[in-house]
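RETRY 2/3 - previous attempt timed out on the joint model. Re-submitting the same 635-residue input unchanged.
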Amino acid sequence: MPPGRVTEQPKSTGALLPLRRPTTAPPDEPRLQDVDEWGRSERTRALVRRLYGPIYRRWFRVEWEGLEKIPLHGGALLVANHAGAIPADAPTIMHGIEEELGRPVYGLADNLFRSMPVAGTAWARGGGVPAHPDNAYRLLRDQQQLVLVFPEGTKGTGKLFSERYRLRRFGRGGFVEIAMRAGVPVVPITVVGSEEVMPILAKAPQLSRLLGVPYVPITANMLLLGPLGLFGYFPAKLKLRVLDPVTFDVNPDQDRYPRSRVFEEAEAIRQRMQSSLYDMLRHRRSVWFG
Amino acid sequence: MGRRVLITGLSSFWGGRLAQAFERDTSIDVIVGLDTGEPLVALERTEFVRTDENYSILARLVRATQVDTVVHAALVVDSSTTSDRHIHENNVIGTMNLLAAAANEDSHVRSLVVKSSTLVYGCSGSDPTWFRETTPRSAAPRTRVERSLVEVESYLRSFAEENRDINVAVLRCANVLGDDLVTALSKALSLPLTPTIAGFDPQIQFVEQDDVIRAIEFVVTNGLVGVYNLAGDGRLPWSEIRAIAGRRPLLLSPVLTALAVAPLTRLGLELPPETLELLRYGRGVDNFKLKNNGFTYRYSTAGAVRHFVENQRLLGVVGETEPSYHYQGDVETFFRHSPAIVRTP
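RETRY 2/3 succeeded.
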């Protein structure tokens, strides 16, 4: 600390009580809630895990492969394929890693949630973080956390059933740049089964424009279950495979990274994930039993 | 020779506190305070000068007093108290006058410290959780006060470029809580029912009033240059802030919120659009830059809220905790300049 002048002693201004300027800061008393800086609440997470546990085990019968490739310490950027009108992959990955490895996972998602009453708050309390490069950097670099992103974004979840398991474009590869800057590995995860839990048969583009949302899906679930289909997933078996982590041979904290390099790396990761998906599908005997 | 300091916005309660803090600093020889109204706190050696709302007297004043440091604390950041026109006159035209005066060839100004606000970051759904000083805002400013502050900061940037011999420091204050300060949020927290937008529980960051004064003092003393966020550590959900204050929520509709709050204005609680956005999305700014330069905060966000609530309780019981003060020009002149006063060197 540079030598500052002492400015602590108050000059009496005729106060009746020593109300102003206590000599030391009062210690932060125990918090009333446990919401962290990202809006995540461990209590809410625990509740979500308790509710989601049976669905995870009994309904989707989730199976992991290569879970040991996810680092137990330090930051890592998890990237996965994204599917289903209301995607089941995000809660599944977060739940699985938190249960199996005991590490919190922060899911980056579209800011769309934030402007929705109730849903936005619930989403944040449950570990969702607005997708912003600053947020990802702080989580990965400063706090060494696990961060989950879906580079396909809503293009992945909004695709029709006929296009299942074909990875969309990975944006402009921003996720690679973030991992480079934060100096953390990218850990690709491929999910099979998520396309079948809530398949989109058709979309209503006029309605989605009107509502200002990326897509309004008409799902098979809705056709079979009526309004219940908005939330009712089909019991497809979910299989997840963790691929080898990708590290980049660059210095962290640079202002910019070569565009072409970023794009190449992103494309390489996409290729690997796509072939892993094909491989998993080759070995899948049944949608429902794996 | 000691420093000579000019403070704009002296007559806000805490502009006065800032002057008091400078008065304790023996290395500051002269303190001149400028405002449209009279000071609200007792000052010992600060010279008060009355001005019009766009500070047209500044050029003459800066030349005559030969101040070397200007603390611009007069920017209006709470639009609930003033008209749009006054905000423009005061913030934009006032600052332009100040910059013109400071850049004048016979000005002695070497250091300019401006108290701005985190309103320059705006508040929207696509914001990052923490703004750093370099993070651009996500959406264009829509309200008058935000627009004026963004404009002021752009003037300051070009001023700093053009006048490299003058140190320009900008402090972007988060929402301030303090006993001397009435803001839309502090009013909201002292009502029995605290306005809350239904379905939203934003995380809000505060900075304690004393920390703001100490930070300005710190920046002036240490000659810091550049833009700094000024905010307590951490953020708290609005529901938790309400719980600390022991208030129940007054739920406002999440759609057409501006209509829902209109009746509140009648009851004396005006919630300006900036505050409504804040109650929807919250805002966080990274305070590391100033801390890395050696400043230590006394209060975190939680500490500031608790301190505020405790003092509100005390004030609720005893009313005023300090004797009220009325500025009397002739008395002040007598004590400062009369030959009858025995001055100890």
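Strands of chain A lie at 63-65, 76-80, 105-109, 128-130, 146-149, 186-192, 200-203, 217-219, 239-242. Closing ticket.
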